[in-house]
């Protein structure tokens, strides 16, 4: 397999979307910077933040695992989650990152050390090293606190609330450097309000993106977040991202062209979320380069799941690095 040398790719986001992109992109590009949002406060991560005052390890752990060799036993150890006893619900990776941070009082250094131990291809970079929390402003002017709470919210129909972080945070210098030097910046798919936007809300991130020479590629979700982005079309996601960034900065939009069978879509609509359509007429006169590719995972579909095919997504990204669209 050919691996791009001397090409630098930044992947912005966190959670399962970044995990999918990174897990496959590492086999095509040798210089990847995964820039991770730092607002996670649910589950194991939330307990560790509240009880020990550490920065959130969860999404960082996922990105470290994604960039590590598949055959690594340490990778499996980082993924291991305790199912009983006092550590029930905690993953080993979260505990390890927390211990490293407490040992050196430096989360950035802890992430680097973990990356070295896991022998990752590329680097994982927290978007900020400030201790921040996600907030959401409702249409009535109220404020909802916490990523874990916001993630479970059901918005009013057609409501498009704003999210922000507190306290005001500054961009991690390593994240700023990675964005400046990038040849391509990828916004990974993920939950709009709790994954994608928080990575862009840190002061200095969008400014660094605008200053960078790198094109910005947004890989659009296939399924809406139930109760939050139901009814969104592709252009709605773009509009919300750039509204929160307070400027236009996306150059290319990549979307999936294959529609799953109706029975699977109906099941998702009742339990997880609706299919996200693209209105090409709405985007016809937009400044974006619109690229449609068959990116639906056939193996996931056989299990009744709607997922991106990470290998195809990686090939689309590398084709953009080459300057063509041969996939």
UniProtKB/TrEMBL annotation:
Subcellular localization, as worded in the UniProt entry: Cytoplasm
Gene Ontology process terms (BP): regulation of cell shape
KW Cytoplasm (keyword) present: yes
GO molecular function: LPPG:FO 2-phospho-L-lactate transferase activity
Domain of life of the organism encoding this protein: Bacteria
Any Gene Ontology CC annotation: cytoplasm
Pfam families attached to this UniProt entry: CofD
Protein name per its UniProtKB record: Putative gluconeogenesis factor
């Amino acid at each position: 397999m050919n691996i791009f040398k001397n090409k630098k790719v930044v992947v912005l986001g966190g959670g399962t979307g970044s995990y999918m992109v990174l897990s496959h992109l590492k086999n095509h590009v040798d210089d990847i910077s995964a820039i991770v949002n730092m607002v996670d406060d649910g589950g194991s991560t939330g307990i560790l933040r509240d009880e020990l005052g550490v920065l959130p390890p969860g999404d960082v752990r996922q990105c470290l695992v994604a960039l590590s060799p598949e055959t690594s036993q340490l990778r499996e150890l980082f993924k291991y989650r305790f199912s009983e006893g006092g550590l029930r619900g905690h993953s080993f990776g979260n505990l390890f990152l927390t211990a490293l941070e407490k040992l050196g009082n430096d989360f950035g250094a802890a992430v680097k050390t973990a990356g070295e131990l896991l022998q990752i291809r590329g680097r994982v970079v927290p978007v900020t090293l400030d201790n921040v929390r996600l907030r959401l402003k409702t249409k009535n002017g109220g404020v909802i606190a916490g990523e874990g709470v916001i993630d479970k919210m059901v918005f009013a129909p057609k409501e498009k609330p704003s999210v922000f972080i507190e306290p005001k945070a500054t961009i991690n210098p390593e994240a700023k450097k990675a964005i400046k030097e990038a040849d391509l910046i990828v916004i990974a798919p993920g939950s709009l309000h709790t994954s994608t936007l928080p990575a862009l809300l840190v002061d200095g991130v969008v400014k660094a993106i605008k200053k960078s020479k790198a094109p910005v590629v947004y890989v659009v979700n296939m399924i809406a977040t139930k109760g939050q982005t139901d009814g969104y079309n592709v252009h709605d996601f773009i509009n919300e991202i750039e509204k929160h960034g307070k400027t236009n900065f996306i150059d290319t939009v990549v979307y999936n062209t294959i529609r799953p069978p109706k029975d699977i879509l109906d099941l998702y609509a009742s339990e997880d979320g609706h299919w996200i359509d693209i209105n090409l007429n709405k985007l016809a006169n937009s400044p974006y380069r619109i690229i449609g590719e068959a990116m639906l995972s056939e193996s996931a579909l056989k299990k009744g799941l709607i997922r991106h095919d990470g290998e195809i997504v990686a090939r689309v990204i590398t084709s953009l690095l080459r300057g063509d669209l041969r996939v």
